[in-house]
Amino acid sequence: MEQILTAVIPVVIIGIICAAVLVIASKLMAVKEDERFPVIRECLPGANCGACGFAGCDGYAKALCGDPDTAVNLCVPGGVDVAMHLSSLLGKDYDDVEAQVAVVHCSGDCDKTQDKVDYKGIESCAAAKLLYGGKGSCSYGCLGLGDCAAACPKQAIEIMDGVARVEPSYCIGCGICARTCPNHLISLYPAESKAIVACSNKDKGAQTRKVCTAGCIGCKKCERVCPNGAVTVTDNLAAIDITKCADCPDPGICAESCTTGCIRIAELAVREK
Amino acid sequence: MTNLIVILLSAVFINNYVLSKFLGICPFLGVSKKLNSAVGMSLAVIFVMLIATAATWPIQHYLLDPHDLGYLQTIVFILVIAALVQLVEIALKRYIPSLHRSLGVYLPLITTNCAVLGVTILNISENYSFIEAMVNSLGSGIGFMLAMVMFSGVRSTIEGRDIPESFKGLPITLVAAAITSLSFMGFGGVIENLFA
Is residue A142 part of a domain? Predict the structure, then answer.
C-alpha cells in the first residue's frame, strides 16, 4: 500500500502543479477574442477558397470582426444566404451577391485541333506548359491535363475531349481554377451572362485557322452585328463586355454570326441553393 | 568541446531519431508532403525538444533520483512535457502571435510525440550532463528536420511519377522511407572515427 502511495502521490502533486500553472497562465495571458468571431465563422461555408480576397474563411471572419468597412457580400460560394445572415449578425446593409461561374475560354477539343507532340511527361498542365508551351498545336489553348479539375474543390470541372468543361450547377465561383490554369483560360463570369468567347488565341486569323478550326480569327463580324457595341476585337481576339449585354435586343446574334463558332451562348444556370 | 561536437553530429546523422531510431514516424509520414509544413513542423520539434530537456533533466536529477522514484520517469515526463508545451502555446499566442500562427497546429500536435519523449528519456539513460543533454536535444531536433526536409523532397519527386496502381499512396511512401533510412545506416561509425 505504501509503495502505491509513494508512486501515486508525487504524480498527483506534479499534475496539480502543472494544472495550476496552466490555469494561471491561461487567465494571465488570455487573448481577447471577439465573441462574434465564432458565430461569424460558423455561418461562412468553410470552403477556404479565397474568393473573398482574404486568406480562407477564418481570415474573412476576422476581417468582418475587426474592420467595420468590410463588405458582407464577399463570400461567393455562400451566396445570398450567407450575405443576409452576416448582415443581420453585424447590423450592416447588404448588397446582392453576384453568383459567378467559371468559364473556360477554349473550345479546341480533339476534333478541332491536334497535338503537335506526343507528350509522355508528368500529367500536369503546369509541367507540360514548360515544355515548348504545351503539347497542343495551339499554344493559347487548353492543355487538357486537368490541373483545374484537380484544384476544383467541388469537382465541377471535367476534361472532355481534351478540353476542360465546367459544370455550372456544381461551380461555386471561387476562382481557384482561374488561378491554377497556366494558360489563364478560365475566368469568372456572372451567372446570368449569356454570350462567352470560347477562345484565347491572339494569333492572326490565318495562323489561328491552321492550328484550330474553332479559334477566333478576328474577322470582326461579331463586332459589326452586335446591337449594343458590346463586342470588340483586340489582338485578333473577340472580347465581350458583359455589362452591355444585359438589355440586348437580339440575344444570340453574335453567336449565330460567328464564322468559327467560338462565340457561344452558354447555359450558365444559377446553381441550386 | 570535442565531446559536444561528437554528441551533436551523432545525434544528427548516426542516431537520427526518425531514420535510425524510428521514433516520430507519425509526423514524418504525415507532415512531409510539403516542404513548408515539413520545415514548420521540424522547427516546432527542435523548440519543444530543447525546452522539454531543459525541464525534464532537472526533474530527473533533483526530484526523482534523490527520492528513488526513477520508475516514474515516463509518466512524469509525459505530464510535464504536455503541460510545458501548452504553457508555451499560451505564451506564444499572447506575446508572439505571428510565431504562434506559423507554428500553428504543429505545436499541440507534438505534445505527446514519441521523438520528444524519446530524447528526454535517452538523455537520462545516457547519463549526459545538462549541457550535453541540451546539445543532444538540439542535434536530435536538427536530425529530425534533416529527415523531414529530405523526405519531403523525395515525396515531391515521387508525386509526379507513374507509380503502379497498387503502390500508390502510402505503400510507395513507406518503401521510400525505408530506402532513405537505409542510406542513413551508411553513417554508422563515421563520427567516432573522425575524432579518434
Answer: yes
Is there a single domain that holds both residue A254 and residue A177? Answer: yes
What ipTM was assigned to the predicted interfaces of this complex? 0.74
| Sequence-ordered list of residues with C-beta below 8 angstroms from that of B82, at least 6 positions apart, any chain | A18, B111, B112
pLDDT tens, residue by residue, A165-193: 888 888 888 888 888 899 888 988 887 76
Q: Which residue of A has its CA nearest to B70?
A: A7
A48 and A151 share one domain:
no
In a domain, A181, yes or no: yes
Across the range A60-73, mean pLDDT stands at: 80
Q: Are residues A113 and A231 in the same domain?
A: yes
- A64 and A133 share a domain? no
Is A10 in Cβ contact with B86 (below 8 Å)?
no
Q: Identify the domain containing residue A72 by its residue range.
A: 36-90
Q: Say yes or no for a CB contact (<8 Å) between A10 and B76.
A: yes
Q: Is A127's Cβ below 8 Å from some Cβ in B? A: yes
